[in-house]
Amino acid sequence: MPELPEVETVVQGLRARLEGRRILGVSLHQPLIVRGDVALLRRALPKSRIERLERRGKFIIVHLEKPTSLRARHCLIVHLGMTGQLFCCRPSLPYEKHTHVTIELETGEQLRLRDPRRFGRLEVIPAARLEAYFAHLGAEPFEISLAEFAARLARRKAPIKSLLLNQDLVRGLGNIYSDEALFAARIHPALPAGRLDVRALRRLHRAMQRVLRAAIAAEGTSFSDYVTADGRLGRFQYRLRVYGREGEPCRRCRRPIRRLVLTGRSSHYCPHCQPRVRRIVTGRH
Predict the structure, then answer these.
(1) How far is it, in rounded angstroms, from Cα 81 to Cα 236?
(2) pLDDT along the chain (285 residues), means of 10
(3) What pLDDT does 280 receive?
(4) DSSP string, 167-212
(5) Which domain holds residue 110?
(6) 29 and 124 share a domain?
(7) Which of 78, 99, 133 is the last residue of a domain?
(8) Distance of CA 49 to the CA centre of its chain
(9) Are 74 and 124 in contact (CB under 8 A)?
(10) What was the pLDDT predicted at 279?
(11) Is the CA virtual torsion 161, 211, 196, 155 positive or negative?
């Protein structure tokens, strides 16, 4: 599933090709990919100019100028789901199976959304509703302070890995980068969050941001479906320390990586580098 680094990479790749450009038309090859009002999407996109793109968590937001057919400005919200691909290409590029949406641009290019498993979605909402739409999401990993991070996890009995996946607490993290951040911080994924002391939380806070920045620099992780806005594969899969490496030697201690299931999700970890202890105590602080 595309996580924060993959979505950020797509946004960065699309900005130069979309911002300031006008949309000429939209073709819905699979209308079920649209959430909300399909008719509104058909009215809002054609003849609109794209003002800017941004990312919030795992969502892509396309800010549109007000078209003459509507009274208010609108935003196109895109979620890539598990297998979504959003990319620009020339019209001559053959359509791949599961291409659900084509947006025609004044540059002669097309913006296509392809999603084999169809868990992604498009939705157009009034710009005035944008903040309310995302009000349920937690803080951005790059914006949350250590104090706020610690407060959100304090006295929580749930495994720390499960809480990192909770988009109401911190948005944008998924299985890949939660596993990698916990390994970098030397924290066992099943450890209850409330048992982490300040120093462990500081290590995790720093590791989370460092891993995400490294993944963005490598244009994300490509295992099966994810590609950049230009159709390239990401490169972070070559730098993974634990995720997807069950049975392989740890890059730090050479002991085998293990996998366990927490709340229905797989977690990969090194039992030597991330020992499961009753409480992490690192001295006075």
Answers:
(1) 20
(2) 94 96 95 92 92 96 80 92 94 94 97 93 95 95 97 96 96 97 98 96 98 98 88 94 98 97 95 78 41
(3) 43
(4) TTTBSS--HHHHHHHHHHHT--TTSBGGG--HHHHHHHHHHHHHHH
(5) 4-133
(6) yes
(7) 133
(8) 25
(9) yes
(10) 46
(11) negative
* SS3 at position 153: helix
H helix or E strand, kind and range, residue 18? helix 4-18
* Contacts (Cβ under 8 Å, ≥6 apart) of 153: 160, 163, 169, 193, 194, 196, 201
Q: Is 58 tagged catalytic?
A: yes
Question: Is 18 part of any domain?
Answer: yes
pLDDT for the residue 67: 64
Q: How far is CA 11 from CA 7, 56, 71, 219, 229, in A?
A: 6, 10, 27, 11, 8
Is 97 assigned a catalytic role? Answer: no
In the numeric block, the tokens 């490169």 are attached to 235
123 tagged catalytic: no
Q: Is 269 helix (H, G, I), strand (E, B) or coil?
A: strand
What pLDDT does 68 receive?
60
Q: Do 247 and 154 reside in the same domain of the chain?
A: yes
- State the catalytic residue, choosing from 21, 246, 265, 271: 265
Could you tell me the CATH number of the domain that includes residue 64?
3.20.190.10
96 exposed, middle or buried (CB, 10 Å; 0-12, 13-18, 19+)? Answer: exposed
At which residue do the structure tokens 């296509």 appear?
112
Residue 174 to residue 208: CA distance in whole angstroms: 11
- Say which of 17, 58, 186, 241 is annotated catalytic: 58
